[in-house]
Every structure is written in structure tokens, then in C-alpha cells.
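R.M. (postdoc): so does anyone remember the format we settled on? I'll just put the C-alpha cells first.
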């Protein structure tokens, strides 16, 4: 079973930046797809970004395109989410996720990390 440990959340003012990290371990084979989901208070969990580990193909939800960048360091089994130009509506719990099928929707059915809080103030 895949174990995911996410880190790097925090509080920032609108327009600021944060970087999230996710380390995947515990599986005999790395999952095909790693990324992040987020859940704002009172809203459903949504996929934010995903990366196909095999060739680095990325997927983003429309609301973060041009502001967030997902990347990977294969030597460290780590995936990063660089979040720039943050907006108050980016506030929520962010969960590292892994799944065999890649995409922001497919991640919602995969393994989840414990989650970290991201708060963006106006």
C-alpha cells in the first residue's frame, strides 16, 4: 500500500507563494500518478494537479493553470506543487494523492495523505 506524507502548507497573503511536497513510500512500485486534491470548507474535494510519474505529463484544474506548477524528483520519490499568485479561494486542506490512472478527477479515487492546511488571506 502506498504511504504519502505531505508537507509545506501554511498561511500567506494573497499574491504570495507556497510550495507543497509529497513523499511516496511503502509500495513495491511507484504509483503511476501523484498529485494534490483540495477541499475548501463546505465544498467538495477537487483535484488540483497531477503528474504522470512515467513521463512527467501534467494535468491541472482550470482555476490554477498558469499559477501552480507540479513537478517531481524521482531520486527522492518526491512530488512538488509550487503555488504562486495565491488567491483567498485557494484556501483549504490540501491532500497528496496517488492513483493508478492519471488525472485530476482520477486522483479523487486514489490513496490520500493526511492533508495540510493552506490559508490565503486577502
Amino acid at each position: 500500500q502506498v504511504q504519502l506524507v505531505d508537507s509545506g502548507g501554511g498561511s500567506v497573503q494573497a499574491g504570495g507563494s507556497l510550495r507543497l511536497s509529497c513523499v511516496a513510500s511503502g509500495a513495491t512500485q511507484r504509483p503511476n500518478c501523484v498529485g494534490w486534491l483540495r477541499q475548501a470548507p463546505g465544498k467538495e474535494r477537487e483535484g488540483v494537479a497531477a503528474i504522470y510519474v512515467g513521463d512527467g505529463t501534467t494535468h491541472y484544474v482550470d482555476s490554477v493553470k498558469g499559477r501552480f506548477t507540479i513537478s517531481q524528483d524521482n531520486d527522492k520519490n518526491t512530488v512538488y506543487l509550487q503555488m504562486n499568485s495565491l488567491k483567498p479561494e485557494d484556501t483549504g486542506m490540501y491532500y497528496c494523492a496517488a492513483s493508478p490512472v492519471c488525472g485530476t478527477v482520477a486522483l479523487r479515487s486514489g490513496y490520500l495523505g493526511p492533508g495540510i492546511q493552506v490559508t490565503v488571506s486577502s
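R.M.: ...and that's the designed sequence above, right after the C-alpha cells. Also worth knowing: The radius of gyration is 13 Å. The first strand starts at residue 3 and ends at 7.
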